[in-house]
Amino acid sequence: MDLEQLRALAAVVDQETFEAAADALRITPSAVSQRIKALERSVGSVLVRRLKPVVPTPAGERLLRSARQLLLLADEALLALRSDQAHDAAGPGSGGGLAERLRVPIVANADSIATWLPPAIREVALGGRIAVELLRDDEHATADLLRSGDAVGAVTADPRPVQGCSVRPLGTMVYRAKASAAFVQRWFPGGATAEALAMAPVMQYDRKDSHQLALLARVAPEATPPQHFIPDSVQYVEAVQAGLGWGMVPDQQDPDGLLVELDPAWSEDLGLYWQSWTLDSPGLDEVSAAVVRAARVLR
Fold first, then answer.
1. Are 260 and 180 in contact (CB under 8 A)?
2. N or C: which end of the chain has fewer CB within 10 A?
């Protein structure tokens, strides 16, 4: 299969329209359409549904992951060749350098992005070879982006390896049920009882967030308290600090212990793992090594 046809497939799925894909590839929408049609003829299947946004068919999804792997390796080889050519042209003593950086998409949960992961991104970015595209999803869903090919590495709560991926343990994030002192005084004057939990507002990250509801199901199964949704990890903790509700807060986001722990027995340990494609890619290896080093701060 032609690499430019595979690149067109990835572009229309990423950009969601043929016009946006054409802009990204710096060709005409007609050329994008021709490459997709040629690829569909070569594999004997329709690969994308011509909707707005464009979505891959099941056959397109299967091909897309392999396409992204091939494109990563091809781009890495091309950039290495360009670097060698630039160095040779500049002569001895010149830094040479790359005209572009290798794009490496990875995915992590919001709390990791807000706490321990940024040093890894900075380390890779300062190396000058790689441009990290950081995607965000729930820790129980990040592995799905490995399966689809949207990411080449993932911080995930799932220790089971995705097909074609390797797994390394990163450590544990500890979540504790916490609230501001004023919130505790108002809503839990007699302690965080089942009756009080049924009335006290609870903070939720988004509809995928299971930390708080899992705790309520365990300690107050009949409780249906009001819920506030704030889909930003930093603002979520700020809302808890401001007294909007109680929530499960990772230790890394309350390092000085300014919040009040409702019950020490209500802590939750979240084991995290790094899964990445099993490819002979120095760029992906560099990102993986930086992530593993940054995760040393975890328990």
1. yes
2. C
